[in-house]
Known about the structure:
The complex is a heterodimer of chains A (444) and B (102). Chain A is mainly alpha-helical and 444 residues long. Chain A has 19 helices and no strands. The mean pLDDT of chain A is 91. Chain B is of the alpha/beta class. Chain B has a domain of 51 residues. Chain B is built from 5 helices and 4 strands; from the N terminus they run βαβαβαβαα. The chains are: A mainly alpha (444), B alpha/beta (102). At the A-B interface, helix 1, helix 2, helix 15 and helix 16 of A face helix 4 of B.
Amino acid sequence: MSLYNMVINFVENKIAPIAIKVGNQKHVRAMRDGFIVAMPFIIVGSFALVFAFPPFSEDTTNSFGRAWLDFASANFDNIMMPFNMTMGIMAVFVSMGIGFNLARAYNMDGITNSALALMTFLLVASPASEGALSMGHLSGTGIFTAVISAFFAVELNRILQKYHITIKLPEQVPPAIARSFEVLIPVLFVFATVFPLSLYLQAEYNMLIPDLVLEAFRPLVSASNTLPAIIGALLLCQLLWFAGIHGAAIVVGLLSPIFLTNISANQAAYLAGEAIPNVFTQPFWDFYIFIGGSGATLALVLLMIFSRSVHLRSLGRMSFVPGMFQINEPVIFGSPLVLNPTLFIPFVFAPVLNAIVAYTAVHMGFVGMGVSQTAWTAPALLGASWGSGWTISPVILVVILLVMDLFIYLPFFKMFEKQLLKQEGESEESKQGSTSPSGSGVTA
Amino acid sequence: MKKILLCCSAGMSTSMLVKKMQEAAVNKEIECHIEAVSVSAFDEFIQDFDVCLLGPQVRFQQDELQKVADRYNKKVEAIPAMTYGMMKGDEALNQALSLIPN
C-alpha cells in the first residue's frame, strides 16, 4: 500500500472519527461558542492597548509619532479604559458565553444559566473584599477557571433538574416567575459546594481557586509554546482539512483557552515593559502559519491566477479576494485540495515550514510576539503587524513566508496543472470530434 | 417566500454562496430570503427559516444540528464539495428547494 494511501487511511479511520466526536462533544462546542461571544470584546480591547503604546521610540522626531506619544501618555488611563473593561475582564465574557451555550446544548434556559455560571466564576475568582471586586483573575489568568466553573455550574443545575431537586411552583404561576424560583436551588448548591472549597484554599494556602487551576494547567500552557506542540496542532488541523473536515474550527476551538491565556500574559508583560513570553498566540497561527487560510493557500491562489488550466485559472480568480481575507473554502473544495494526493505535501508542509521559520524569527528577536488579539479574517500583512502592536518587521516576515510558500507549492502545482490540462485537452478533443464535420475533404 | 439558512464555521464562506444563490433565485424567478450565519447561531436562527444547508467542512455537525432542527420540523443537509468549492449558486439553490416540503 503506498505511503499516501496509508496516510489517508490513518486520517480517515483513526484521526477523523475522534476529531469529529471531540468537535461535536457538548462541552467542547460550548467552549468554542462561548469564546465566540467574548471575541468582539477581546479584539476591540486589544486594539485600545496598542493605541496606548504607539510604535514609535520615545525620542522619535516623527511629528505624527511625537503627537501620538504625547497624547497617549497624557491620557493613558482613559485610553486604557476600553482595554480594562474588555480584555481586562475577558474571563467574565467567557464565563457567560460558555454558561449560555452549554445550557442551550442541554435545552435549558440560556440566560439564567449564563448568570449562574458568571456568579460561580466571580465567587471563586474575585470574592468581594472591602467593597470591591479584585480584577486579578478576571482576565487571562482566569480563563481556565471561567471554563471549568461554567461547566460546573451548568452541570450542577442540570443534575438538580434531572432529579427534580427544585422549587416547583403551581401551574398557574407565569413561566418567567417559576423559572426564577427554580434557579434558587442551584445558586444555593453552588455556594454550598464551591464556597467552602474556596475558603479552605484561602485559609490553608492563601490561594484562590484560579491560582490552583493555573498551577494545574501551567505545564500545558508552557508546552504549547514549544515548536513540536505548535507543529502537532497544525498537523492535526491540516490532516482534518485534507479529509474535508474543518480542522481549524476543531483545533482552534480547543486551543482558545491557551491562546487567550498566552496573549493575556503577553499583554501584561507589554504593559509592564517586560520581555514578552509567549509565542503561540492567535496572530501567530493566522498570519504566519496560515497565510491566506488553512494550508497557507494564498500562495497557491496566486499561482492559480496565471495558470493555463481553465479550471484553475477561474478558481484562482474567484478565490483571490477571499484569500486576501484568509477565507479559502473555494480553493479547498474547488481545486480540490481535499483528498488530492498531488497537493497533499505542500498543503500540509507549507504551514509547517511557515511555523518553523516564524518561530525562529520570533526567538531570534526579528519580530515581536503577539500582543493583540486580532480578527482572523484580516489580510495577513495587516494582521501580522496589528497582532504585534503595529510594528513593521512582521510585514516583512509575512512577505518572506509567502515567497517561500510560492516555491513550496510551485512544483506540486505544476504537476496538478499538467493533470488538469491533460483532462481539459481530452475533453476539448472529444467535443471537437463530435461537433466538427468528418473532414472528408478534398485532398487537392 | 422561501427562507434558506446557510451555516458554516464563521458564516464567511457561506456568505459568498448567498450572493450566487440569490442570483440563481432571480433567474428562476423564485422569491428567496437567504442568509449565512455561524453554526454557533444555528439554534437561534433555524426557527425562522425553512431549511438549512451546511458547508461541507462542518458536515460533521450535521447530526447534532438535525436533532435541534427536528424540534421545528426543518431539514439540515451538507452542500456537496464541488458545488461549494466552485460556489455554484443554482445547484445549491436547487438542493435547498428540494428539502422544503410544499
